[in-house]
């Protein structure tokens, strides 16, 4: 089965953020991801990772003013400078923590707007080029508009096509973030897309559909999907980006029942 990474923004919220690293380790995780680490210093996060034997496998670049409703800057034509500054901020965290991949959110914009499309490609070229010099991957993720109304990148196949186009230009560190939850809501046909797009995929995430709770509690046979990832030879992590129905620790039985093994190791 895949190596599972606890999303510490959503899981173990019974604990203060920096204490979630220990909680994840105690629960058996060896990898973690977060949405945004920027409220704490890179050194503080690196220290918790080292203390508890964890790998940080993914976090997001700064998204703009999240509390005001912004969901990324990459497709916003007038925010390029802020986006570029955010790349530098995220890079400092990635280098301090050893994180090998970053996700760039597109933002809220009309996918039919040519100016937004041009801005998005410009942002991806800049960020991927900058991160490539440090051996770090840049990921983009299609997000369904039920969860995030107005999000610019809301089609898995279109996102994959864009990744393929820019990789052909030489941006080989640009990859697709494949979220099973979003793909099922957007299109369905999850495992067929995994097989077709595997060469472009840099990270996978999971949550149940439709409620975004523990895997194995919704309409998708997540155990089958995990087995298919193994069959396809996927060697990366699967981020557990779900909202626990109760205490995180009380809901981890899915790791044995759904993932076919007793622990996350």
Task: Describe this structure as you would to a colleague.
The structure is a single chain. The chain has 265 residues and is of the alpha/beta class. 37% of the residues lie in helices and 14% in strands. The chain contains 9 helices and 8 strands. It has helices at 20-26, 42-51, 80-97, 114-132, 156-168, 180-186, 190-197, 222-232, 254-257, and strands spanning 3-7, 31-33, 55-60, 101-103, 137-140, 174-179, 201-206, 237-240. The chain has an 8-stranded parallel beta barrel, surrounded by 5 helices. Helix 2 packs parallel to helix 3. The longest helix is centred in the middle third of the chain and has 19 residues, at 114-132. The N and C termini lie close together (10 Å). The model has no long low-confidence stretch (mean pLDDT 96).
Note the main attributes of this structure.
8-stranded parallel barrel; 8 strands; 265 residues; alpha/beta
The gross shape turns out to be: globular
Counting helices, strands and paired strands, the structural category is: alpha/beta
Lateral strand order in the biggest sheet? 1-2-3-4-5-6-7-8
Largest sheet: 8 strands, parallel, barrel
Q: What percentage of residues falls in helices of 4 or more residues?
A: 25-40%
- Kindly report how far apart the N and C termini lie: 10 Å
Radius of gyration: 17 Å
Count of DSSP-assigned helices: 9
Helix/strand order, N-terminal first: EHEHEHEHEHEHHEHEH
On the 0-100 scale, what is the average pLDDT? Answer: 96
Report the β-strand fraction as a percent range: 5-15%
